[in-house]
Design brief:
homodimer; alpha/beta
């Protein structure tokens, strides 16, 4: 049988890749290779896509936000129409369950994101137009002038897919073309999305290079890509070491890069809360850790409690919960290896495995649910060693000797996407909360009370971001419309520019009749 | 005479510096040393200031925006009361004229900036509070949790002063304490501002470390400072090489840094405009270049015209204008040296000096007004060599052989703060404008028509920012309230947080009765 290498999507055309190698996806439930043969693109493919993307930028500026919205809505609808095929494909490539997950939550969320992005595009208020009439100075958030490069992660084949997920929706709604790099764990899923998107562009005024897609790159070519003069910006969701390398390359070239690269999502359970409802919280913890087989960016990987009788009861209850069979397959061999390395490092630095701690025998990629514990003092000796994000149903409980030690653990935390505090309802924990919360507030983008961090509501107020190393800049979010669009924009001022040369959003007349604008210092829809 | 070293302001106290050396300011009009002896701080001073700044962050969160506004207003008023002393001092240290400049425009602007920052603080709408009632998720822009380090530039001793300028006002209005590093060219001016600010903190609930000030650092200590774990963010306005070193250090540590570091501010004069009013535009150009003795960040350093009869007339008129005596003193020896190096490089790469091109004999730092020209083809051979920002009344005219070549020159431009296009009123240039503007739009934060870029209106729509290497990120501005505050904030989400633990801006009740908030997707003052 002659194996046909899958084509890449460049400038609207599915064309043969100029490849430097090939790869195949793997079924995580068996470890067996899946049939499709996919190219690792050479930098020639990248340059062709960047040049087409550069031209597409100029064309997209001429397209009305309503038509961009129409594309996103049509894409959402077409995805709905191909749901079964998408779900089957993603299930095969990721082993994530169809129900509950791929079909019941992730695909609906993906479709909803595209519709929210379309709504933001039509509404235009996200652009924050400002007009000062006396000086005739006007400004607005506009597209970057180069394509947005999207590196999708392994763990959300739909909602964070480089060709259909939140980054893609935000980048296009902000008026930028996208060059999607598929995650090599789910190339056929990404290909399907790209095919659907390509079809949805037919008959619209958006340029064919609005969405381009390649499957894979050599790491050094990824570094060249994010630093390329034609690149507008990059969005990367993935692991810390790859993220840091891309960040350094982009930073050196002065190219914006939106990174989501690491988070342990600490959970503090205060003593009153443990006393009041430790068993219920333990159940919440194990369920949250097991969601998506422990492969959510917001998985609670670190739990901090006091080392008292209630704390030890909580630990025992958690251990029982974690002794259940693994909740699913890991997404690939690299996830398993990185999980093993992370557990080994924690043990080496003094953590004790309470349950689990090794791979599950058998086909596919599975790891025992793993609960570890460490004393607060030992944690504080090497806090960095216990803060490596690791996908899998694994969590480390830090037993603080005193409230003061709990505060010191909080101070030693690196930046995360989220941080939670559980406390009692009667008010016994209020004093400690007041001391703890100010430390935690600037350690994470999202501070939760009495609630585990997995399960992101895609609402305007959501923040999926946070201080380094969770992301590269704490002022942005990658989830939540319309705020997530701002990652892919430049702030553009028009000073004394003649009226007919202004974008419609900055002319005297309100282009939609209801777009919010800051006119002479006052927000108005006039 | 025993020389007393000036103390530094750390944690509210003027204390002796732990210094590694000393320096004196220089009178630019004579080259003579000025009397005060100032310390180059050791890293011990820095660490003491960072620790005090870290504590001040926690205190400032407890202070109401109204009280922060009161401080800024009181500071503005006290500066007004000490105007004469400030103007005398800054004049001595910079040789910038008192009238028209230090007293008539720059000090009033500085006072106005503080008042605008106070207004933004009181108004609170800049924080972009978002509330989703159904999910009980709320988010807001909040302070960074570490002091903002401000490196002020040499060229605006008032309006960009690290202890009183736009960055200081924005950082404090956003709820952050400031550690100001004076520019070594005007230490006494900075000291005066710090003294006034210290006095204004008396009797208010703001912590004494709200503003701290040191004079100077070894370069390597500056790099450690911007990357320090206790640092919240950095604002740097200055030259490209220092900016790039600070950027690299901050980027590597994942610390936000707001940079303004280089801009040549290209001006395109289209053929119809030249024909219609070339003489008037030439007069505008020379006046804009000479403003502040050519030491504005927005000085037009590059002019692009067609090499036709009108172009040559424009060149001749500009040459005559530039043949006037220098408009003032350069701020220091380093400015003079960097200007000489820049002119030499341009000449080496083929530019021809039409007038000027050497220092003026005599005391103080002066350089002849200098106009250079180069053919478009030669420019395109080494475009980077002609885009080094150099303070001084110096500009390079690029003579493009054709309109196509003019477009190629536009494409070869690096990022600037501003870019201008002059065109005729009758419409002859409209076709060329339509081809040129899309190229230029993403090359600068501010696009002007028929107007030189010097002279910034401090209005909400102003953008003093732009793509690299003008700044480090094109989504921000360092001038214009309230937008400039966002550089010093984190996006902070409160997910299911109990009502009494929320900041007032995120509680159900509107804290001012008129703050704008995004509630369930709709902007409202309710």
């Amino acid at each position: 049988m002659v194996r046909i290498m899958q084509p890449v999507l460049i400038d609207g055309v599915w064309r043969e890749a100029r490849s430097v190698g090939t790869f195949q996806a793997v079924d995580p439930s068996t470890g067996a290779l899946l049939p499709g043969l996919f190219p690792i693109s050479s930098f020639e493919d990248v340059e062709a896509a960047l040049e087409a993307g550069g031209r597409a930028c100029k064309d997209l500026v001429q397209v009305s936000p309503d038509e961009i919205a129409s594309f996103l809505e049509r894409f959402a609808e077409s995805i709905q129409g191909r749901a079964e095929e998408l779900i089957d494909t993603a299930h095969r490539e990721t082993a994530l369950p169809k129900v509950p997950r791929l079909g019941t939550t992730e695909l609906p969320r993906t479709i909803d994101q595209l519709r929210q992005a379309a709504k933001a595009s039509r509404d235009r208020s996200w652009r924050r137009a400002a007009i000062d009439t006396k000086s005739n100075i006007r400004s607005i958030h506009g597209p970057l002038g180069g394509p947005i490069i999207i590196f999708g992660p392994n763990n959300f084949p739909f909602a964070f897919n480089s060709a259909a997920g939140g980054d893609m929706a935000a980048a296009i709604a902000a008026g930028n073309p996208v060059l999607a790099k598929s995650h090599p764990y789910h190339p056929t899923t990404t290909k399907l999305f790209a095919e659907i998107a390509r079809g949805c562009l037919e008959g619209l005024r958006l340029p064919p290079a609005t969405l381009q897609m390649i499957y894979h790159l050599k790491p050094e070519d990824g570094l060249r890509l994010v630093a390329h003069p034609l690149t507008g910006a990059t969005a990367f969701t993935g692991g810390r070491s790859s993220g840091m390398r891309l960040k350094e390359a982009a930073d050196r070239a002065g190219k914006p890069i939106s990174l989501e690269m690491s988070s342990v999502n600490p959970v503090f359970i205060l003593p009153g809360g443990l006393r009041e409802r430790g068993g219920a919280i333990a159940a919440e913890l194990s369920a949250s850790c097991a969601a998506g087989a422990g492969q959510f960016c917001t998985k609670p990987g670190l739990v901090v409690i006091l080392d008292d009788a209630d704390g030890r009861d909580f630990l025992a209850a958690s251990k029982r919960n974690f002794e259940a069979p693994p909740s699913g397959f890991l997404l690939g061999r690299s996830v398993l290896e990185s999980l093993q390395a992370s557990v080994s490092e924690m043990v080496r630095e003094g953590a004790e495995v309470l349950t689990g701690g090794k791979p599950v025998d058998g086909p596919g990629f599975q790891y025992e649910n793993t609960l570890l514990k460490i004393a607060g003092r030992a944690f504080l000796n090497h806090p960095g060693s216990f803060q490596h994000e690791a996908f899998g149903t694994v969590s480390l409980v830090v037993l603080a000797g005193t409230e003061e030690e709990m505060l010191r653990v909080a101070k030693a935390l690196e930046g995360s996407l989220s941080v939670c505090v559980y406390s009692d309802k009667a008010g016994a924990d209020d004093g400690l909360y007041l001391r703890l919360a100010p430390i935690l507030r600037t350690k994470a983008g999202r501070l939760l009370n009495d609630k585990m961090p997995t399960g992101l509501a895609v609402v305007p107020s959501m923040v999926h971001g946070g201080p380094f190393p969770a992301t590269g800049h704490p002022g942005f979010t990658s989830v939540g419309f319309p705020t997530s669009l701002l990652r892919f924009t430049a702030l553009q001022c028009y000073d004394n520019v003649r009226p007919d040369r202004l974008p419609p959003e900055l002319r005297d007349e309100n282009p939609t009749g209801k777009m919010w604008r800051l006119i002479d210092g006052e927000w108005t829809q006039k």
